[in-house]
Amino acid sequence: MIDFHFDEEQQLIHETVTSFAAEQVRPAAHDAEESRTIPQSLVDQAWELGLIQGTIPEAYGGYAQEPSSAVSGAIVAEALAEGDLAIALHLLSPRLVVDPVLRLGSEEQKQELLPLYCGEKFCAGSAAVLEPSWDFSFANVGTTAKRNGGDYVLDGTKCFVPLASSAARMVVYAQDEQGVLGAFVVDTGTPGLEVGEREKNLGLNGLETFEVTLSDCRVPATRRLGSDATGMLRRSRIALSAMAVGVAKASLAYAIDYAKEREAFGVKIAQKQSIAFMLADMATETDAAQLLNWEAAWKTDQGEDAAREVALARYYVNDAVLKVADNGLQVLGGHGFVRDHPVELWLRNARGFAMFEGAASV
Fold first, then answer.
1. d(Cα 203, Cα 180) in Å, to the nearest integer?
2. What CA–CA distances, in Å, run from 236 to 168, 221, 231, 300?
3. By the 8 A CB rule, do 47 and 121 touch?
4. 3-state SS class at 184
5. Which helix (H) or strand (E) holds 221?
6. Is 154 helix (H, G, I), strand (E, B) or coil?
């Protein structure tokens, strides 16, 4: 039987991250979007919470007592994204390296790489998954990895790679000669890996993303993680669906508060039937999306094949967050189009969930 009750540790995580997102992340979101910069002081505060170190076992420098839970990861991702999506993706970027190493890496790889993410200062991570192709899919990744002696030679182009210019290493997903999806830890200074100009996107302007080109990029075979990385991309979809739920929750809460305060023709607009029905639809979509994603995360934690649940959650949540964010803007009417209100940013960010792949992990 599926159980969505938080245990004591998950409840503490939820309360801590929700409070941090409301008190620190949300107030910084507007300036981060406008300036295209996330304050280092905010990053340092988040690092002190131990959101990354708490997922790494003590043997490698962290303080996790047991393997990180997909449900716990979804709780953190959802709460941070309710504060701001761009900041959430930045703060959780180390997991793009940590999680694949934890789940796919050898003991030697864990000993080498995981302690790097347990220091006193924020250590950015990155993953190169998405490709600038209309027919991109996990089943047919265009980036190739060909074995050559003791190395793999990587060739291909990736886009929407977060923090590629500041992360010391990234996990590149490429298809080997047997058609198996592989994950390779690549140092950003490796010859043949070129980080392009910072991308300009519709939303998420606080998050630095880049196009990355791999041309005859040689990576030691010892930097390949496991044999098949498909499971990591499913976990990424759980994280992104959780973040979409966070954006939907933010839009819903803001619209409700606005409707309770805004008057038209002598009454609060929340008393207008059309507005009340719209808010009810938004709440239904948000709760449904959250439950679908929690089911996918819970089954993943049970060791079950959650491919179906992950796919259904991702499909539903992508539509739900866009609908909720759009309705949230409509509740505000003309004010929704003004950048002083965050609903227009949430709508722009919601539009991107259909194409975000590999930008987060649980």
1. 33
2. 21, 24, 9, 12
3. yes
4. strand
5. none
6. strand
- Type of residue at 253: A
Q: What is the pLDDT of residues 163-218, one digit of tens each?
A: 999 999 999 999 999 999 999 999 999 999 999 999 999 999 999 999 999 999 99
Q: What percent of the chain has pLDDT over 90?
A: 88
Rounded (5°) CA angle 202-185-214? 60
Could you tell me where the DSSP H helices lie in the chain?
8-20, 26-35, 40-48, 70-83, 85-91, 95-104, 107-113, 230-261, 273-301, 307-332, 343-351
Tokens of 38: 């996330």
> CATH homologous superfamily of domain 8-117?
Acyl-CoA dehydrogenase/oxidase, N-terminal domain (1.10.540.10)
Q: Specify burial of residue 234 (Cβ count, 10 A radius: 0-12, 13-18, 19+).
A: buried
Q: How many CB atoms lie within 10 A of CB 209?
A: 23
Q: What are the residue boundaries of the structural domains of the chain, listed by start?
A: 8-117, 127-225, 230-354
Where does 230-354 sit in CATH, by number? Answer: 1.20.140.10
Q: How far is CA 122 from CA 81, 106, 166, 210, in A?
A: 19, 24, 11, 20
Could you tell me the two tokens for 140?
């047919």
Task: Specify which residues 187 forms β-bridges with.
Answer: 169
CA gap 144, 209 in Å, rounded: 22
Residue-wise pLDDT tens digits, 74-119: 999 999 999 999 999 999 999 999 999 999 999 999 999 999 999 9
Find, among 132, 133, 129, 126, the residue nearest to 168 by Cα.
Answer: 126
The predicted model scores a pTM of 0.96
Partners of 357 in the beta sheet?
A: none
CATH fold of 127-225, please? Butyryl-CoA Dehydrogenase, subunit A; domain 2 (2.40.110)
